[in-house]
Write a structure and sequence with these properties.
Blueprint lengths: L6 H10 L4 E2 L2 H4 L14 E5 L4 H13 L4 E4 L17 E5 L6 E5 L4 E5 L4 H10 L16 H7 L6 H4 L2 H4 E7 L5 E4 L13 H4 L8 E8 L6 E9 L2 H15 L3 E8 H9 L15 E9 L7 H13 L5 E4 L3 H12 L1 H7 L3 E2 L2 E3 L5 H15 L4 E7 L4 E7 L6 H6 L1 H14 L15 H7 L2 H14 L19
Parallel strand pairs: 2-4, 3-4
Antiparallel strand pairs: 1-2, 5-6, 6-9, 7-8, 7-9, 10-12, 10-13, 11-12, 11-16, 14-17, 15-17, 16-17
Helix pairs in contact: 1-3, 9-11, 10-13, 14-16
InterPro entries: FAD-bd_oxidored_4_C (IPR004113), FAD-bd_PCMH (IPR016166), FAD-bd_PCMH-like_sf (IPR036318), FAD-bd_PCMH_sub1 (IPR016167), FAD-bd_PCMH_sub2 (IPR016169), FAD-linked_Oxase-like_C (IPR016164), FAD-oxidored/transferase_4 (IPR051264), Oxid_FAD_bind_N (IPR006094)
Pfam families: FAD-oxidase_C, FAD_binding_4
Organism: Pigmentiphaga daeguensis
């Protein structure tokens, strides 16, 4: 469909400028497919506004034409929530041009960013002012602020600093009628009614389009200790976390669990300089980071003493501390390369679950046994943020099994994993969201009253189901 033959595309071009409305197949292709290739779609148009005012006018135009809007940031999502369906009727609203850092205030310890700003750019802007923006993701070079807000991303430093919901002070949001809700306050305390920003954090773009956000900043660490330890099993890892926290308290910034299969896949597709930090073919590893903001204190000796005690107690079999910032980066590269390495192995099944920290060993033992019985030879890739109970519990096909055969067992694999999560009172999605991929399981395990309340909120804010219809919540069958 050409720009001039579609009245909506022409209206959008009048708002943002003709170069920023894409309709040709070659131009829209990169906006219509997800990172994993699971949800290819077709957009009526891709529109790229430059500021909040243009977003508001675009939303109003789409509403007038009855066209659904799919907000998109870096398009790094894994659940099919940020790409159009295959109907060719949805408009992708890309926020990639809205990438300004509006304000960094070291005295307030806050910063305001537009939705298209990448997480890495946010980190760099904070660092330039002597502050720390602690959200850290493997995809931070492409993941954007609007996306992490909409999915309530957690990341690798959530143990100390919390997830996106904990870091967000204020939002600017375009609503379905084209009005702009300006809640971009840097205030830490405001008891004047409902905390409306919380409605949009984790809403996956179904209630409004986040155009900017204000975040907390922190003092940067003056000393960081990064260590890689081999542990005999997940129970030992949980015990090590408790022991380490007891020794250094809130200085534990990150605590990542990685199983042997995950590490082997990384080492099978290594980047430059990647190698196993320890010898011995150990079954599980922990990557930990301990940071101190005071220049007068160094936690290294306390970490070394904690690891020595853990070795004596059988929680750790071997460990190495990074001797430089470069070595620390190399250790983190092993962890961050897991998703890409698994993709290179072929078709994979992914789970983003959470259980209470104490139940992590029980979940892994139950899920491993259930999947081994259901799909003999299945390879279990387990890694994640043990400090907050969030595991990326993924599966790769067995040797000799085709991608097609593996796809055929995917629903059974999901069902078994989700049933175990439910029995342990966990969540089927800890940071990736629901999107389209997990909607059936979400409706199965989320309390019916909770789903009903979400549907009422959706109808109140977006009665025509303009934003991301069919993602998170099922498509509305009635306008009443």
């Amino acid at each position: 469909m050409s720009l001039h033959s579609d009245s909506l595309a022409a209206a959008l071009a009048a708002i943002v400028g003709e170069p920023y409305v894409l309709t040709a197949a070659g131009d829209v292709a990169r906006y219509c497919g997800d990172w994993r290739g699971r949800y290819p779609g077709a957009a009526r148009a891709v529109v790229r506004p430059a500021d909040t005012r243009e977003v508001a006018r675009v939303v109003a135009a789409c509403a007038a034409h009855g066209a659904a809007v799919v907000p998109q940031g870096g398009n790094t999502g894994l659940v099919g929530g940020s790409t159009p369906d295959d109907s060719g009727t949805e408009v992708v609203l890309s926020l990639d041009r809205m990438n300004r850092v509006r304000r960094v205030d070291p005295l307030d310890n806050s910063m305001t960013l537009e939705a298209g700003c990448t997480v890495q750019a946010a980190q760099e802007a904070a660092a330039a002012q002597g502050r720390l923006f602690p959200l850290a993701l493997a995809s931070q070079g492409t993941a954007t602020i609007g996306g992490v807000v909409s999915t309530n991303a957690g990341g690798e430093q959530v143990v100390r600093y919390g997830n996106t919901r904990d870091l967000t002070l204020g939002l600017e949001v375009v609503l379905a009628d084209g009005s702009v809700l300006d809640l971009l306050t840097p205030l830490r305390k405001d008891n004047t009614g409902y905390d409306l920003k919380q409605l949009f954090i984790g809403a996956e773009g179904t209630l409004g389009i986040v155009t900017a956000a204000t975040f907390k900043l922190f003092s940067p660490p003056r000393k960081v200790v990064t260590a890689w330890a081999s542990v005999p099993d997940p129970q030992a890892a949980v015990g090590l976390l408790a022991s380490l926290t007891g020794a250094v308290g809130e200085r534990v910034t990150a605590f990542e669990l990685i199983n042997r299969e995950a590490l082997d896949q990384v080492l099978a597709h290594p980047l430059d300089g990647m190698r196993d930090p320890l010898a011995g073919g150990y079954p599980w590893a922990v990557l930990m980071e301990i940071s101190e903001t005071s220049s007068a204190m160094d936690p290294t000796s306390a970490v070394e003493a904690a690891l020595e005690a853990a070795m004596e107690g059988g929680l750790v079999t071997d460990a190495v501390l990074a001797a430089s910032g470069r070595q620390a980066e190399e250790l983190w590269a092993l962890r961050d390369h897991v998703p890409e390495a698994q993709r290179l192995q072929g078709y994979s099944i992914k789970h983003d679950i959470s259980v209470s920290v104490s139940r992590i060993p029980d979940f892994i033992a139950r899920a491993d046994a259930a999947l081994a019985a259901a799909v003999p030879g299945i390879r279990l890739v387990c890694f994640g943020h043990v400090g907050d109970g969030n595991l990326h519990y993924n599966q790769s096909r067995s040797a000799g099994m085709s991608d097609e055969a593996f796809r055929a067992v995917e629903e059974e694999v999901h069902a078994r994993v989700h049933a175990i999560v439910a029995k342990l009172q966990g969540s089927i999605s800890a940071e990736h969201g629901i999107g389209r991929l997990k909607q059936a399981a979400f409706l199965q395990y989320k309390p019916a009253l909770a789903v009903s309340l979400m549907q009422r909120i959706k109808h109140a804010l977006d009665p025509a189901s303009l934003f991301n219809p069919g993602r998170l919540l099922p498509r509305s069958t009635s306008s009443n």
